[in-house]
Amino acid sequence: MTTFAVGVAAGKVVPELSNEPAWPFQVIGVGFAAVGLLFIGYGYVRQKRVEEAIARGGYAPFGSHAGFVFAALGVLLGVGTMIVILVHPS
Questions:
Q1: How far apart are the C-alpha atoms of 69 and 1, rounded to whole Å?
Q2: Higher-confidence position of 50 and 3
Q3: pLDDT digits (tens, 9 = 90+) for 8-63
Q4: Which of 31, 38, 41, 90 lies at 20 to 30 Å from 64 by C-alpha?
Q5: What is the Cα–Cα distance from 31 to 84, expressed in whole angstroms?
Q6: Is the pTM for the entire model greater than 0.90?
Q7: Average pLDDT value for residue range 64-79
Q8: How far apart are CA 79 and CA 38, in angstroms?
Q9: 71-20-36 Cα angle (round to 5)
Q10: Residue 33: CA atoms inside 13 Å, Cβ hemisphere, count?
Q11: How far, in Å, CA of 34 to CA of 36, rounded?
């Protein structure tokens, strides 16, 4: 849910308060919202995997690929946010 709040703030609120072009902020906002959707989707899949593992008395490890993807997206959005802030200091 936090990613949605950041997406709205970056994509809608900041451009309205700024005299700078809105599109860089909107791109970052959409990126944060997309990551939020991915978190929700993966959370659902993860819940099902854990429930199935518990039912058979097993373990469902967190996938290293998923961890990498979420970490990479976080780094990309963080770097993108820093670039937008530095390029548009207002």
A1: 18
A2: 50
A3: 988 889 888 888 888 999 999 999 999 999 999 999 999 999 999 999 999 999 98
A4: 31
A5: 13
A6: no
A7: 94
A8: 19
A9: 25
A10: 13
A11: 5
Determine the residue type at 61: P
d(CA 28, CA 5) in angstroms, rounded, equals 12
Task: Concatenate the DSSP letters of all residues of 26-45 into one string.
Answer: HHHHHHHHHHHHHHHHHHHH
Long-range contacts of 72-81 (CB under 8 A, 24+ apart): 73/31, 73/35, 73/38, 74/35, 76/31, 77/28, 77/31, 77/32, 77/35, 80/27, 80/28, 80/31, 81/10, 81/28
Range of the domain at 77: 2-87
Q: How many domains does the chain have?
A: 1
Structure tokens at 8: 């709205």
**Residues in CB range of 77: below 8 A, 6 or more apart:** 28, 31, 32, 35
